[in-house]
Specification:
- By secondary structure, this protein is α/β, with parallel strands linked by helices.
- Helices cover about 30% and strands about 25% of the residues.
- It contains 11 helices and 20 strands.
- The protein has helices spanning about 15-25, 75-90, 110-120, 135-140, 155-170, 180-195, 200-210, 245-250, 285-290, 310-320, 390-400, and strands at about 5-10, 30, 40-45, 50, 65-70, 75, 95-100, 105, 200, 215-225, 255-265, 270, 305, 310, 325-330, 340-345, 350, 365-370, 405-410, 415-420.
- The strands form 5 sheets. It has a 10-stranded mixed sheet with strand order 9-7-5-2-10-1-11-15-19-20, with helices on both faces. Strands 14, 16, 17 and 18 form a 4-stranded mixed sheet that branches.
- Helix 2 packs across helix 6, helix 3 crosses helix 4 and helix 3 (about 110-120) runs parallel beside helix 5.
- The structure holds guanosine-5'-diphosphate, 6-O-phosphoryl inosine monophosphate and magnesium ion (MG).
């Protein structure tokens, strides 16, 4: 059996949580492979709204095994809070959720380093979620990190203190008043919560599942344009959000990847700093934010909004080898007279359909306009009901990307999903 991968093709928040929850019944295993509590994946069903940060979005389905893979960075504080809120909803994740012993731990001092680094950047700040993601991945590649498996070692506390001291020395170089101690008690309580779960050799387990013929879905976090290698660097996150990240973040071979499900919004959003060529800092942007409820699921920050960017989308499709597209939030465009899509960029008078290396340049998107459908699509359940203007929009995207749009999401709830 091969593992399918579902990932975001824009700057995150494409609706991954919703769609993983919808597709989950087709799978035996759902696994997160990168990122950490910077993610906020919203799910909606039976009038319940829930946001997951570290825990895979298959958790609400009985029978499904959920895995936090080695590529994830895990904060015991956020994790414990997520578990508590699931338990309050009557979900018992102890049996169904397994943790890779190789996933790295986010320490309180990583969070403080994240904050100190952002403050020091002034106007050039990334707009990080301040969850400690960057510093934790730095310690991973710098070969200093602590991993989930380490919590079972008798000298874990000493290892913790050693790393904390290292961080304290770095923090001294910043003009930043840090207070690591305020989080420590809760953090060590979170470590006890982690111990309630099965800590596994996830790369072996995952490959064994595939060998047994179990169906697995790898759930991406963030989006391709936030990828550490291919995103709008340095305004990116610190992991490989593209499909290759599923291989390193779970320990599966490239030849074991099946379908690559790429998810995108019918328009575009970005939260945090960095280039966003099709951003609409005007009434259109405000309307998208209002109708689409575009506020961060993790930080509550207003998301920047703009038109769909096909230059960026085609780049993401290429990097991931997307085999099927999923379009979300088409319903947000229901009332628009005209819908625009960027098909190329004009940079210093030159037209290109490639993402530029230099992100400081002035990019003027070249738009193609579509007539709006002016129909409420949010209650529709079959492809046949969709207005012809929306079908034209979808067919144009399919032609440009060369990939079929297999699912159209028309609302936040589980059942607001049209499979084509
Ligand atoms: P994720 O990070 O990719 O899981 O996405 P988020 O949960 O951060 O943001 C997506 C938001 O859009 C959430 O509030 C979802 O409930 C909502 N959503 C998802 N799909 C749709 C859709 O098709 N239509 C509408 N109107 N909202 C949607
Ligand atoms: P999901 O999984 C949207 C953005 C931050 C910031 C940059 C770096 O919900 O789609 P970090 O905290 O990683 O150091 O922040 O990346 N970012 C996200 N934007 N959705 C996310 O996750 C994000 N995770 C990080 O806003 O610009
Ligand atoms: Mg999100």
């Amino acid at each position: 059996m091969k593992a399918d991968v579902l990932l975001g093709l824009q700057w995150g928040d494409e609706g991954k949580g919703k769609v993983v929850d919808v597709l989950a019944p087709k799978y035996d295993v759902v696994a997160r492979f990168q990122g950490g509590p910077n993610a906020g994946h919203s799910l909606e069903f039976n009038n319940i709204k829930h946001v997951l940060h570290t825990i895979p979005s298959g958790i609400f389905h009985n029978q499904i095994i959920n895995i936090i893979g080695n590529g994830v960075v895990l904060d015991p504080i956020t994790f414990a809070k997520e578990i508590e809120s699931l338990e309050q909803m009557g979900v018992n994740p102890t049996e169904s959720l397994k943790l890779s012993q190789k996933a790295h731990l986010i320490l309180p001092s990583h969070r403080e380093l994240d904050a100190a680094s952002e403050v020091s950047k002034g106007k050039g700040k990334i707009g990080s979620t301040l969850k400690g993601i960057g510093p934790t991945y730095m310690d991973k590649t710098g070969r200093n990190g602590l991993r989930v498996g380490d919590i079972l070692r008798p000298d874990f506390k000493e290892r913790y203190n050693l790393l904390k001291e290292k961080h304290n020395n770095i923090l001294k170089q910043y003009d930043y008043q840090s207070n690591i101690e305020q989080y420590e008690e809760e953090w060590f309580k979170g470590i006890e919560t982690l111990k309630r779960f099965e800590i596994i050799e996830s790369e072996h387990e995952v490959n064994q599942y595939l060998k047994e013929g179990k169906k697995m879905l790898a759930e991406g976090a963030q989006g391709s344009l936030l990828d550490i290698d291919f995103g709008s660097y340095p305004f990116v996150t610190s992991s490989n959000t593209v499909c290759a990240g599923a291989c390193t973040g779970l320990g599966i071979a490239p030849s074991s990847i099946g379908e690559v499900l790429g998810i995108f919004k019918a328009y575009c959003t970005r939260v945090g700093a960095g280039p966003f060529p099709t951003e609409q800092e005007n009434e259109t942007g405000e309307l998208l934010r209002k109708i689409g409820h575009e506020f961060g699921a993790t930080t509550g920050r207003p998301r920047r909004c703009g038109w769909l960017d096909l230059v960026a989308l085609k780049y993401a499709v290429m990097l991931n080898g997307v085999t099927a597209l999923i379009m979300t939030k088409a319903d947000v465009l229901d009332t628009f007279d005209t819908i625009k899509v960027a098909t190329a960029y004009s940079i210093n008078g030159k037209v290109t359909d490639r993402m530029p290396f230099d992100i400081d340049v002035e990019i003027t998107p070249i738009y193609k306009e579509f007539k709006g459908w002016k129909t409420n699509i949010s209650g529709m359940t079959t492809e046949g009901e969709l207005p012809k203007e929306l079908m034209e929009y979808i067919q144009f995207i399919e032609k440009e990307t060369g990939v079929p749009v297999k699912i159209v999401s028309v609302g936040p709830a589980r059942n607001a999903t049209i499979v084509r």
